[in-house]
Amino acid sequence: MDTQPTGITYERVDVAYFEKRGLKRYAGVASLWALGVGAVISGHFSGWNLGLASGGWGGMFIAAVLIAVMYLGLTFSIAEMSPALPHTGAAYSFARTAMGPWGGFITGLCENVEYVITPAVVVFFIGSYLGSIFETPVEFQPVYWIFGYVVFVGLNVVGVELSFKVTLVVTLLALACLVAFWVSAFPVVDFSRWALNVAADGTELPNGGGPFLPHGIGGALAAMPFAVWLFLAIEQLPLAAEESVDPKRDMPRGIILGILTLIISAFMILWLNSSVPNGTFALATSGEPLLDGFRAIYGDGLAKVLALVAVIGLIASFHTIIYAQGRQIYSLSRAGYFPRWLSITHGTRKTPHVAMLAGALVALVLMFAVWFSVGAAEGSAIIGGTLLNMAVFGAMLSYIMQALSYIILKRTHPHIERPYKSPFGVVGAGLTIIIAIVTLGFQLSDPTYRAGVIGVAIWFALGIVYFAIAGRHKLVLSPEEEFALSKGEAEYKTY
């Protein structure tokens, strides 16, 4: 036992402990790019459009610009930190080195909310699409959720090679689907008539020509939590550090290529999906905005085929975020912040199967609790909207902590080797913090989603109580912990 001055206790473990928690290196730049883009791409198929109800098209556009600035500051900060601290812990690792064990744990807890709840929201949208395709009753939705988790947790357990190959294929297919929509939409675009078809009082304008900001600048700011869905989870890339062949070289390249790809796609879908028949007013309440866009162009005859194509984007995100969920739980567990048995990896496949199964079970329990407590119809609204905001709330707190970690590390750890340096530096990290705080403020001001925020607060409270009572006395000198305790002097290593 080794007790630190902060009241943190490290238990000594032998080599066998890490042998049971080994990972396998595989990923290169293309795999990392696909992991980042694939995690986000479902947000270009469903979810983002709910922000149109708050801000209209103009408000959503301004919100997307602000959120894009936030993510540029965040991703370039991460692109600098991840090759300097190339550990699976990612956000927890950055904060642990910058702010100590409590800072690392709280950051990890914030990210844990995001990576457990986000795939639940994505599989909900998958169920919505499949329900439309196969014309199943709403009561059948839970079957789709269970099937989705069984299949894609299974694929992630089989091995990292298969996981990254599937990620690359489905990400490319999802982008191909989006490009097909953009090309199809160009000939029928009428921006003024369809994108601006919302009046100042929120009613539909059949001939368009409405105001750019029907709900004012306040509506634009209120749309920010939904604009996050266009980029949410790109920050998961550093979780693959210990499975990357050369994280110091490839991680910055993968992150930067990923965010640039997503920015182009986000603004193309915002412009074109809103500018085809039915437009902003109808999309604001749609559970399947891309499918509705295809229907507007091609009619209902091809709807089911197009819906199957659209599901690919959701599958890409679902598959890749399950990967991230497993690595995030694994890293906190390996270091002792979460119960250690969660970090045991498969004996031959070297994948964190226990962590992925545990995360999937927690998400399904949460979804079923909502579904059966309030009924199918209302449950759909809560899962699709409130859980989305819970994921965003956890993510915003995580972004604040990561950007703060970047600023602190620049001051306290200037000696750490940095293979890549962010061109935006401390200013970019500062903008990330400011925009994330504003986004949180508008989430808290919306009574519709306040219940979700309260749910996250309860999650945090339970986690902090556990760490205060038990977790802080059971830490292990994992690579992240050794690096942090040495003030960045120790050579990073994996097991």
UniProtKB/TrEMBL annotation:
> Which domain of life does this protein belong to?
Bacteria
Pfam family of this protein, just one?
AA_permease_2
Q: Which GO terms of the cellular component aspect does the record hold?
A: plasma membrane
Q: Mind listing the UniProt keywords for this protein, alphabetically?
A: Cell membrane, Membrane, Transmembrane, Transmembrane helix
Q: Does the keyword DNA-binding apply?
A: no
Q: Which subcellular locations apply to this protein?
A: Cell membrane
Q: Which residues cross the membrane?
A: 26-45, 57-79, 115-134, 140-159, 166-189, 212-234, 255-272, 305-324, 354-374, 380-401, 422-442, 448-469
Known InterPro entries for this protein?
AA/rel_permease1, APC_superfamily
GO MF terms listed in the record are: transmembrane transporter activity
Its placement in the membrane is given as: Multi-pass membrane protein
The protein's name in its UniProt record: Ethanolamine:proton symporter, EAT family (TC 2.A.3.5.1)
Q: What is the lineage of its organism?
A: Bacteria, Pseudomonadati, Pseudomonadota, Alphaproteobacteria, Hyphomicrobiales
